[in-house]
Amino acid sequence: MNPNDGFRELDREECLRLLSRVPIGRVVHTRHALPAVQPINFSLDADSAVVMRTSADSELAAAIDGEVIAFEADEVDAAAHSGWSVVVTGRAAMVTDPVEHGRLTRTGPRSWVASPEEVFIRVEPELVTGRQLAGGRSVYGLGLSSS
Amino acid sequence: MNPNDGFRELDREECLRLLSRVPIGRVVHTRHALPAVQPINFSLDADSAVVMRTSADSELAAAIDGEVIAFEADEVDAAAHSGWSVVVTGRAAMVTDPVEHGRLTRTGPRSWVASPEEVFIRVEPELVTGRQLAGGRSVYGLGLSSS
After folding, report:
1. Do A113 and B133 touch (CB under 8 A)?
2. Which domains does chain B have, with CATH numbers?
3. pTM, to two decimals
4. What is the pLDDT of residues B62-111, one digit of tens each?
5. What is the ipTM of this complex?
6. What Cα–Cα distance (Å) separates residue B8 from each residue in A40, A140, A145, B20?
7. A56 phi-psi bin (left φ>0, alpha ψ -120 to 50, beta other)
8. Which InterPro entries does the entry mention (chains A, B) (predicted)?
9. pLDDT band at A12 (very low <50, low <70, confident <90, very high)
10. Which of A77, A113, A117 is most worth mutating to test chain B (most B CB atoms within 10 A of its CB)?
11. Which of A52, B21, B109, B136 is exposed most, by the fewest CB atoms within 10 A?
């Protein structure tokens, strides 16, 4: 079997570094018993948790609070056949502490759909995995580095 | 509850039209008991099935053949807070018929990592859902159309 299907596995540090470069990721969860994938803007907290912001009464908040979910982000160049993808898997939790909420209001992601009452949702980075796809040539021959 | 969290639900036709515009999507499945999300190039078949191309011995092919999976694609403008996301849910199946394989060699997606033996995987569009996010303003006020 083609090892890793032509992908180079990334270590945790590389994954988090790449993740910090993009503004959009995708929450992977279940909605009405079906797989749901929702793009959303996010930021990384100081402890590398994924932070999202949504209205307090959103369907998303209700669906994922307390659940183990996957959060994915990627950058893919279709023309060059290259890119990377990172998945953070961990438990999502609404931030209920007012001090933490205040902190994230200053440091966290902006809201896309303003609503009267917003909450932050943090996803603990319990498992962080990633892959880098090198287009067309041997992964090792491309001299890919973490920079 | 904010209806659909500020998203406008898209009908099947709109979803497939949007899906046909992008070269990359993501396979959402399970790998080593964990959620796996893998970006991959694809095309839509004449019957709107999602078509992927991979090496015959790939981990991906082994993982999803015969399984119900989700395939997601999106276009998101982080600055404008707008975009769309479509999810096709259906059973994935390796194409084994040589005539079909020949047809897809001509009409299907190109392979990113050339391998001696490649297969096509089709995902039946059993369920096609999508959402369009309008940035910051009422969805209805933006006059969004299908064009």
Report:
1. yes
2. 7-133 (2.30.110.10)
3. 0.86
4. 999 999 999 999 999 888 888 999 999 999 999 999 999 999 999 999 88
5. 0.84
6. 15, 45, 41, 19
7. alpha
8. Pyridox_Oxase-rel, Split_barrel_FMN-bd
9. very high
10. A113
11. B21
Q: DSSP assignment, residue B48?
A: S
H or E, element range at B102: helix B98-107
pLDDT greater at residue A112 or residue B46:
B46
pLDDT at position A4, please?
60
**Confidence at residue A45, expressed as pLDDT on a 0 to 100 scale:** 97
User: Do residue B26 and residue A74 have CB atoms under 8 angstroms apart?
Assistant: yes
- Which residue in B40, B21, B2 sits closest to B85, CA to CA? B21
Interval A37-74: pLDDT, tens: 999 999 999 999 999 999 888 889 999 999 999 999 99
- Torsion from C-alpha of A13, A16, A20, A21, nearest 10 degrees: 70
Residue type, A15: C
